[in-house]
Amino acid sequence: MGKTISDFKEGDKISSEFDGLTRELIVQYGNSSGDTNPIHMRDEIAEKMGLKGVIAHGLFSLGFIVKLLDELVKDTGRIVKTFGEMRGQVRPGDKLITELTVNSIEGDMVNFDVLQKTITKIKIEKDGNLIESFEAEEKGWISEKDINLNLIKTREIEGKGILSYRERPCILGSASLQFY
User: Which residue intervals of the chain are DSSP H helices?
Assistant: First the structure.
């Protein structure tokens, strides 16, 4: 059962995470959707196009937004609109985080700001030594622009060391749900 309009108030945040993004899943989505553009399906073609490896389909990422909205309304309402501007590439190994923030409630409608972002692991270091390197480090997915925009962050991983990662928006948008 979905939520009801009384479950929301302005400023509420709702989020979901997906941490299972693989090349195989991207290819499976491409085959299922009919979008077999090789920048999504084959690293060597994506690299020739200057992408440093495959990227996920924009609609694949948008699907996680729609899934979260659908879970909220289940049998209690409907999705009236969803809009998203694709701002950043999503890659294999990324954690995809979808965040909805209630910006207004008008009658039977709840309106949301939508932010979807990726967490891209770069490397783990301990005492100045490289412990583990991820594809982002190996393929040069991190740009000077990422660094200049302060998108590179660190956090301690207990027992392993300091994880460096990039956190950046991939979709910014809005959505509206109508409740019965």
Answer: 23-33, 38-41, 43-48, 58-73, 135-139, 144-148
Determine, yes or no, domain membership for 7: no
Which residue do the tokens 């979807």 mark?
A: 116
Spatial separation of the C-alpha atoms in residues 161 and 124, rounded to whole Å: 6
Instruction: Give the whole-angstrom CA distance, residue 134 versus residue 158.
Output: 18
Picking from 122, 134, 72, 99, the residue whose alpha carbon sits closest to that of residue 18 is: 99
Structurally, the chain folds into a number of domains equal to: 1
For residue range 72-121, list pLDDT tens digits in order: 999 999 999 999 999 999 999 999 999 999 999 999 999 999 999 999 99
**Residue 141 backbone phi and psi in degrees, to 5:** -75, -15
18 burial via Cβ count (<10 Å: 0-12, 13-18, 19+): middle
Q: In angstroms, rounded to a whole number, what is the distance separating the alpha carbons of residues 179 and 49? A: 45
Instruction: Give per-residue burial for 43-61: e unless 16+ CB within 10 Å, then b.
Output: beebeeeebbbbbbbbebb
Model pTM greater than 0.70?
yes
pLDDT digits (tens, 9 = 90+) for 120-165: 999 999 999 999 999 999 999 999 999 999 999 999 999 999 999 9
Range of the domain at 164: 13-179
